[in-house]
Write a structure and sequence with these properties.
By secondary structure, this protein is of the alpha/beta class. It has 32 helices and 29 strands. Strand 22, helix 22 and strand 23 form a beta-alpha-beta unit. It is elongated, with a radius of gyration of 36 Å.
């Protein structure tokens, strides 16, 4: 009803129906008119003469619609009719302006004009009989939300419709038996239609709106929401009560009493099926929808003086009822020590005063505590009549919310299990709806929202792997990998739940990205509050590793190739593991040791199955193995290190690798994952580089020092080669002490034939006492490391 074009679409639908059925068409005001009338009323009451501008604007809008809809020969008569109505409206508002008072009764008279005006225009356009709902629908004097006298109303409607084929009636408006104008509440046009349908025992009640039926969730918050095909009266009532705006809650009751099905259709997409609301539930889908109510406060009455005392609940709800405080949700502890209710934020002051006065005596004696109020809350509800026949619906709901860091403040569930409601913080509503919708309506697909920091060599390769594999993962594994944020050392780019395009991500990051700031990056992540968020660290940066605790505390999973955190102080390592467990997040760092090799995963499986690690030995630096496998008397050590750096096998500063620090970190991580306490400074490192190399002020200076000490390296090679041995940097742990050293191994040693940049790790355990469990493969390079990070990301999708 927003415009003449919309009215034409409506009329086309009506004419098609009228060719086959007797019809009553109940119409609402033109789009936004009721709000404008309320605004004008408020302005008039405040003494603001600009209310007249609003009335003039509305008058022009209705006249324009008439000129577009009605033939010229009929326009003048209809415009004159509408002008009379506007004159009456102006007179009433002028009275409000003069006395600066707007009563509920006067407000009802004013806001009902929208429906009266539109019904006159549409009845004329359709050449239909116009019925006046004020004459037919009789109510009490509860202005703003009047209660219908159905006995009298039904008689009036039945009498008025006799012998008619096509009628138009305004929705929303009614009157008392004395003729005082009343309204049926916002959304009352649907209710008016239901009143007419019930009075006439109609075959069907059709509600035509701007969406294709009742949705599984609010599409403004859940992009994947879809129309519900069929739903029972009771399910529809639950959904509409708990925030679904498509249908006004009282609408269902008259139709339910007369067993009249309701069809919700889309005026702008009439071919869409819509939603059929009928007596029986559809058993194919036990959960019909997920909905929410925001701006809720939790109010709790508690105290030892409540236990075993009859009448506490009655007094509480009686006090609230006297002040017209609507209670939306109730939950009570089994000990009767506390009662918690959810009410609208706007009712908090009234509730506090009423309850404090009712229990003033008990509060003064300390038997009952002062009322506790928690604001900025929201209710999220699962609705479905057949949920009671499904095992674990509640558990699935709590698990999904908990694994995404959404704290549940209160729970209410009836014995019928038609509605399971939880109270959460308001700022988590959107994430909660998406989490639950994914879990219950998109069970095949699991969406991961990635925030990747460090899109350089390895990180850039990871993004390209994701880009290439995204469609395959969605089709074969039902994992929807969505990159929501990217950052390098200079720029950061953050999107939203729809993600960033990876087609030209490098250019987009450079051109559209903001200056990188770790604090701002994390703050935006938390503000977006996307479900299944994963922070991916592909750096070697201490500052980036420092944010893991904050992320895990917010139930954001961390996947990292950065060895800094897990090789930091043991207490910090344990803290991160504990935070992940406590907040049901995942902390995965497989690539910390063997790049793409399943070293840590295998180790965890052995420990988890009851085995014990007695000894660890390995070549765990693919970069060092590459260097010593390619170094000989014909190649300079300096040149080989340069190649390793260029290929991305070493850290940007190769001294981290050549000093044994990288190996040291990997060994300490393996020892800790084996269940032993170990600090970095407890590992003995036998350095093979001259001290001058470490003292170099820059990486360039370091390479100069390598050239100066070429004779030292050539002697190391010659000594090993002449003895028939090969140089290997080995890290190990024997159950007591840990070490890192450059060792010359002969052909009998299992590490002798290690090729290229391969890593190898040997685990001696209770089960593998004589022959160790050996894991071997490529342990360096952007492709394999990125693949290892990618594998950890996919593991997050398997989180319960």
């Amino acid at each position: 009803m927003a415009s003449a074009d919309a009215i034409k679409k409506t009329a086309a639908i009506v004419k098609d129906k009228a060719s086959r059925h007797e019809l009553i068409v109940v119409v609402s005001a033109m789009g936004g008119v009721t709000n404008k009338l309320l605004e004008a009323s408020t302005m008039a009451e405040a003494g603001n003469e600009d209310y007249q501008k609003i009335i003039k604007e509305l008058e022009d809008r209705h006249f324009t619609a008439i000129r577009e809809l009605v033939s010229i020969d009929k326009q003048s008569g209809l415009i004159a009719n509408i002008k009379v109505q506007f004159n009456k409206l102006e007179d009433i508002l002028n009275g409000v302006f003069l006395i600066r008072e707007l009563t509920a009764k006067t407000s009802d008279f004013i806001v009902g004009f929208g429906e009266q005006l539109s019904s006159v225009i549409i009845a004329n356009y359709l050449n239909a009989t116009l019925l006046d709902s004020k004459d037919l629908i009789k109510t009490n004097r509860n202005f703003g939300n009047a209660a219908v006298n159905f006995e009298l109303t039904d008689k009036n409607i039945q009498k008025a419709f006799k012998g008619l084929k096509l009628c138009v009636a305004p929705g929303f408006i009614a009157s008392t038996e004395k003729g005082e104008a009343t309204t049926l509440g916002r959304g009352g046009s649907d209710y008016t239609a239901a009143i007419f349908a019930a009075a006439l025992n109609a075959e069907m009640l059709e509600i035509w709106t701007d969406v294709s039926g009742m949705m599984t969730a609010d599409p403004r918050k859940v992009a994947t929401a879809f129309p519900i095909h069929r739903i029972s009266y009771l399910e529809a009532m639950e959904l509409s009560h708990f925030g679904a705006k498509v249908i006004y809650p009282p609408t269902i009751q008259p139709a339910l009493k007369k067993n009249i099905s309701i069809l919700v259709k889309n005026t702008f997409a009439p071919a869409d099926h819509g939603t059929l609301i009928c007596p029986t539930a559809d058993t194919d889908q036990p959960i019909k929808g997920i909905t929410s109510i925001e701006n809720i406060s939790l109010v709790s009455l508690s105290g030892s003086g409540m236990i075993g005392i009859p009448g506490i609940s009655s007094r509480l709800f009686g006090a609230l009822a006297k002040e017209s405080v609507n209670v939306i949700l109730i939950t009570q502890s089994s000990s009767e020590h506390s009662i918690t209710i959810a009410i609208d934020d706007s009712s908090v002051d009234k509730a506090q005063k009423a309850v404090s006065k009712e229990f003033e005596y008990e509060i003064s004696l300390g038997r009952i505590d002062a009322l506790k109020v928690e604001k900025e809350m929201a209710i999220v509800a699962l609705v479905g009549e057949k949920m009671s026949g499904q095992v674990g619906v509640s558990g699935k709901m709590m698990s999904a919310l908990g694994s995404n860091g959404i704290s549940i403040r209160a729970i209410a569930q009836g014995s019928s299990e038609r509605n399971i409601s939880v109270v959460i913080e308001k700022n988590h509503v959107k994430k909660a709806l998406n989490v639950l919708h994914e879990r219950h309506f998109e069970s095949e697909n699991r969406k991961l929202n990635l925030f990747i920091v460090g899109v350089g060599n390895v990180g850039g390769t990871l993004v390209e792997q994701i880009k290439k594999q995204k469609a395959v993962l969605l089709k074969s594994a039902h994992i929807d990998v969505n990159v929501a944020g990217l950052a390098n050392s200079k720029k950061m780019l953050l999107g939203d739940e729809s993600g960033l395009s990876l087609d030209n991500w490098k250019d987009q990051l450079n051109k559209e990205g903001k200056t990188f700031n770790m604090k701002d990056f994390i703050a935006t992540m938390k503000e977006l509050d996307l479900r299944n968020s994963v922070f991916v660290d592909v750096t070697a940066n201490y500052d980036v590793a420092a944010v893991y605790a904050e992320l895990l505390s917010n139930s954001i999973s961390v996947v990292t190739a950065n060895k800094v955190a897990c090789s930091s102080e043991y207490d910090n390592y344990k803290k991160l593991k504990s935070l992940a467990l406590k907040n049901r997040a995942m902390f995965l760092f497989e690539t910390n040791v063997g790049a793409g090799l399943p070293v840590i995963g295998t180790l965890n499986d052995m420990i988890g199955s009851g085995d014990r690690i007695n000894k660890i030995e390995g070549v765990v630096s693919g970069s060092l193995n590459f260097i010593f496998n390619n170094f000989n008397d014909k190649v300079k050590f300096h040149d080989i290190v340069k190649v390793a750096q260029k290929e991305g096998y070493t850290e940007p500063d190769p001294r981290i690798d050549l000093s044994g620090t990288d190996v040291k970190r990997k060994i300490v991580i393996l020892i800790r994952e084996s269940g032993y306490r170990m600090e970095m400074d407890e590992i003995k490192v036998e350095s093979f580089l001259p001290q001058s190399c470490f003292d170099a002020k820059s990486v360039d200076d370091f390479f100069v020092e390598l050239q100066k000490n070429e004779a030292v390296f050539q002697k190391m090679y010659a000594d090993a080669h002449n003895a028939g041995k090969k140089l290997r940097v080995i890290g190990g742990y024997d159950g007591k002490t840990a070490f890192v050293k450059l060792e010359a191994v002969d052909s009998t040693h299992p590490f002798y034939n290690l090729q290229g940049k391969d890593n190898i790790v040997s685990f001696y355990t209770d089960r593998y006492a004589q022959q160790p469990l050996v894991i071997q493969g490529a342990g360096a390079g952007a492709e394999v490391t990125a693949a290892g990070v990618f594998a950890d990301i996919i593991r997050v999708s398997n989180r319960d």
